[in-house]
Amino acid sequence: MKRATSFRIRFAALVLAAFSALSLTVERSQAATTLKIGSAQVSIASIPVVVAIQQKLFEAEGINAEIVDFDGGGPAVQALAGGGIDLCICAGDHAMRLASRGLGGAVLVALLDKHPYSLLAPSGSSASDLAGLRGKAVGITSPGSLTDNTLRFMIRKLGLNPDNDYEIIAAGTGASMRAAIERGSVMAGMFTTPDVQAYMATGKYKFVADFRDLDYMALDLIAVGSWLKSNDATAHAVARAIVKAEKLIQSDPKVVEAAVHERFRTLSPELVTAVAHDAAERSLSHDGRAQEAGFKTALEMLRVADPSVKDLSYSDVVAVRYLP
């Protein structure tokens, strides 16, 4: 009788423990915050976000994050401003534009400290620099994007007019841009990692201009002011997860390679290793803090391309208060 009673007690305790564990799991699942993170394109800037997903850093913060890819920064920012996505892996330029318009655009976490783009042309092109493309069609990803602002700024530095002396055409990203070049719609186009490495490796392309060593508040995780105001705790949690991912990227090459492979599945193992090493060493932020030198360059470039943008301060745009 005592043995039967003891068994029933133990059985009841096991059932209670299982029920408690199940209830806790359901509660955590229900409590998880779902975030849609837009990406201006499939670029290396998204790697810290991918690492945070793969290594369950978001999950540890009670966040279920999903990346939504767009074909250029323009449409991605439209979705951000319209509430279709919560955050955007977009050029810092867009945060500046939003802030200038009173929408409280802010860089929540820096992702890249260097400009991510290069201008490539077919290897047989007679153009050896941007000036050599005068009078020709040149491809950008989308109007108002980082590629658009950069090209216009660099053309003006040559003393030329981007609208009169060049034909600037929105040709999309990656394969779309390459197709535009190959059918002759544009004579050169703007590419980012890993397309730069992949296309240069074919021997069919050459650099017309390489902006990748330029200090620049390039692609960052940006938000609008209304979202930050309504999601203060979530913003802090996102920043913590991304900064942990950025530190992990600097210490574990395999983590970066896994993220690069996830994001760029068609790359060969050799290119995955090369792109991962180049990104970690050359361009990805180490601590999530936008560099002031890069901010100044980005603001100067943007105000030349779009004089309606106000003269903003670093603190107007970079939300360092959320960083751990």
From TrEMBL:
<feature type="domain" description="SsuA/THI5-like">
    <location>
        <begin position="46"/>
        <end position="254"/>
    </location>
</feature>
<comment type="similarity">
    <text>Belongs to the bacterial solute-binding protein SsuA/TauA family.</text>
</comment>
<feature type="signal peptide">
    <location>
        <begin position="1"/>
        <end position="31"/>
    </location>
</feature>
<keyword id="KW-0732">Signal</keyword>
<dbReference type="Pfam" id="PF09084">
    <property type="entry name" value="NMT1"/>
</dbReference>
<protein>
    <submittedName>
        <fullName>NitT/TauT family transport system substrate-binding protein</fullName>
    </submittedName>
</protein>
<dbReference type="InterPro" id="IPR015168">
    <property type="entry name" value="SsuA/THI5"/>
</dbReference>
<dbReference type="GO" id="GO:0042918">
    <property type="term" value="P:alkanesulfonate transmembrane transport"/>
</dbReference>
<dbReference type="GO" id="GO:0042597">
    <property type="term" value="C:periplasmic space"/>
</dbReference>
